[in-house]
Amino acid sequence: MKKLRTFYVLVVTQILSLIGSRMTGIGVGLWVFDRTGNASPLLIAAFFAELPGMALGSFTGLLADRWERRHVIILGDVGQAFASCILLTSFLTDSFELWHLYLAMLIQGTFGVIQSPASQAAITMLVPETQRDRANGIKQIGFPLAGVIAPVLAGLVYRGLGLTGVIAIDLTTFLIAILVVSPIVIPRPQASEESQALATSFWREMAGGWLFLKQRKMLVLMVAYLAFIFFLINGPLELAIPYFSTLIENDAIVGTLLGVMSFGAFAGALTIAVAGKTPHRLYTILFGYLLHGLFLIAFGIARHPLLLGLSILGAMFTLPLTGALFHTLLQTKTPPDLQG
């Protein structure tokens, strides 16, 4: 029971800091676009935020397995708070330049990718196997929930306190997360035979995840299949805003459709969180992506706002549901000390 409480504390603090980060992203986006009238800097900033994930994934996973996971989670929050401090200082001193934004996004992306594997791997040590579907579903709730709450709060704070107020709230959420997580205990996993076999050299440990998967053909096929699926679906979902704007001239309807996207993802995560353990995870994952594909086809064909809303609702509903089950599948098949 105590371990479950620790898990819920982690989830709540991460959702809180995620809301703060999304508020800063929205506030900075409004400020930059308002003064430049150009969306390109925001796309470049998004690139710098994603770059560390592509370049450092194996290394940060190794940190999560070697170090105490609580310390890695705190390090992630401290680093991301430092990035917000850079932005806050540049705006308070009226010296902001676009490269400050790119640097901040690079730092946030780096420490975010450091924190993520430790946070995900902590679930195995805190939640029994019978409740991991629910736990992963609860964890999946954070992103869509922030997508619903952050725009509203960012709009209100931006109007009342300006951009510096938005960033100050973001820093406060990180500070709360650091203070709350500092005293908690996340058990360290025992060394498995697989990890001991990989501990012969640093580079072998770096490649540990791939070496582990290489010996398990079905897991390799599953990871490759999902990587291909994500490669296909990321483009259409990232282009949802210009796609909606091209088809619909009413900004209020476009905003409603974006809200429907977040609500669909929230509903999917909530469904798996409430349902608990799923008996046939692999079949549910495959069926979920089949439904997602059908909804995406409908989304591409639809032109009426109602049909667009229904199709994107269905497409987004399946993503966190299948994502939660996939994480549980990996946690079940992978030794706890290799899950980073």
Identify the notable features of this structure and list them briefly.
340 residues, Growth Hormone, Chain: A, 0% strand, mainly alpha, single chain
Structural write-up:
By secondary structure, the protein is mainly alpha-helical. It folds into 2 domains: 1-184, MFS general substrate transporter like domains (Growth Hormone, Chain: A, Up-down Bundle), CATH 1.20.1250.20; 200-340, no CATH class. 85% of the residues lie in helices and 0% in strands. The protein has 13 helices and no strands. The chain has helices at residues 2-36, 40-66, 69-92, 98-126, 132-181, 193-198, 202-206, 208-214, 217-238, 240-247, 251-275, 281-301, 305-333. It is globular and about 55 Å long. The model has no long low-confidence stretch (mean pLDDT 80).
Task: Produce the secondary structure layout.
Blueprint: H1 2-36, H2 40-66, H3 69-92, H4 98-126, H5 132-181, H6 193-198, H7 202-206, H8 208-214, H9 217-238, H10 240-247, H11 251-275, H12 281-301, H13 305-333
Helix pairs in contact: 1-4, 1-5, 2-4, 3-4, 3-5, 5-11, 5-13, 10-11, 11-13, 12-13
Mean pLDDT across all residues, rounded?
A: 80
Major β-sheet profile: none
Structural class: mainly alpha
The CATH H-level superfamily of the largest domain is MFS general substrate transporter like domains
| Unreliable runs | none
Question: What's the CATH C level of the largest domain?
Answer: Mainly Alpha
CATH names the topology of the largest domain as Growth Hormone, Chain: A
Radius of gyration, Cα only, in angstroms?
A: 20 Å
- Would you count the extended β strands for me? 0
What count of helical segments does DSSP give?
Answer: 13
What proportion of the residues is helical, as a percent range? over 70%
Strand content of the residues, in percent?
A: under 5%
Count of individual domains: 2
Cα shape: globular
For the record, the CATH architecture of the largest domain stands as Up-down Bundle
